[in-house]
Amino acid sequence: MGIFSKLFGALKKTKASLSEKLRVLFSKNKLGNEFYEELEEILISADVSVTTAEEIVERVKSQAIAEKLKDGDYVTNVLKTTLIQMLEESEVEPPAYPCVIMLVGVNGVGKTTTVGKLAHHFLKQGKTVTVAAADTFRAAASEQLAIWAERAKVRIVKHEEGSDPSAVIFDAVSSVKAKKTDVLIIDTAGRLHVKENLMNELRKMDRVVTREFPEADFLKLLVLDATTGQNAVSQARVFDEAVELDGIVLTKLDGTAKGGFVFSLSSELSLPVLFAGVGEKMDDLEYFNSKDFVDGIL
Ligand SMILES: Nc1nc2c(ncn2[C@@H]2O[C@H](COP(=O)(O)OP(=O)(O)OP(=O)(O)O)[C@@H](O)[C@H]2O)c(=O)[nH]1
Ligand SMILES: [Mg+2]
């Protein structure tokens, strides 16, 4: 199986719904206001926000004018290039080592599963990995992570249920520094982004890593369920305000018909997607590639 074939497979649903609508639109010969209005509507129906859809259409339109395009057919390519560029504008460098990756997000989006997948991913690259069970809130959360740690064959740092998550992180950081581990991945409890006390707890965890391990490359990634739709952007905005996110892990891409909010994350919040989850198994995680994603949906 090719590297991106899982992602392509996962994006089939998005592609099916988008490409049919676009095919009908592009088969119209005249490029006029009506054409661009319809294009905007199609983008919005794929969960691109209104602001971003307007921006995409503006960019496509000026490109089409610059290239003196008359045919709807050629606009497909312009649209593709525009979308790829938009995603590439927010891309970041791969992490330097040692690195700390803290996964945050609302309940049930796939944080713990992603910790397991990421541990496996870095181990395959020959890195040493430790995971930290900083979800001390939900009963059995650390056991769930312990199962993933065992599967991936990595070390886990955990405390008992109900203890302070920042203390777990403090211990994990000390241990990783002592052992010169390359990657520390932190699982956190699911929290509603509207609960201020939980967001404060997250800020505290953020401060512990920054203070205790300044030499590490620290990535705070928001895990987003791809089936969430446009609400994903407002979730991202609140988490970003709390802890200054570095990027996104998009999960459950295998279950969505719409992935358009990815463009809004990039254009409105400058947040790149770094990894994509395409299933429930340890191997079901891929580096997100902007070109492949756009090829997959158009
Ligand atoms: N299909 C699919 N399912 C996924 C993916 N990632 C996670 N899941 C499933 O989503 C469910 C929730 O996953 P968890 O990893 O427990 O989510 P969480 O964010 O840690 O949940 P809380 O700790 O309760 O907030 C599980 O049933 C996972 O198997 C994915 O990429 N694709
Ligand atoms: Mg969890």
Tell me what you see in this structure:
This protein has helices spanning about 5-10, 10-25, 35-45, 50-65, 70-90, 110-125, 140-150, 165-180, 195-210, 230-245, 260-270, 290-295; strands spanning about 100-105, 130-135, 155, 185-190, 215-225, 245-250, 275, 285. With about 300 residues, it is of the alpha/beta class. It has a domain at about 100-245: P-loop containing nucleotide triphosphate hydrolases (Rossmann fold, 3-Layer(aba) Sandwich), CATH 3.40.50.300. It has an 8-stranded mixed beta sheet with strand order 3-2-4-1-5-6-7-8, sandwiched between helices. A hairpin with a 7-residue loop joins strand 7 (about 275) and strand 8 (about 285). The longest helix is centred in the first third of the chain and has 17 residues, at about 50-65. About 45% of the residues are buried. The mean pLDDT is about 90. Guanosine-5'-triphosphate binds next to helix 6.
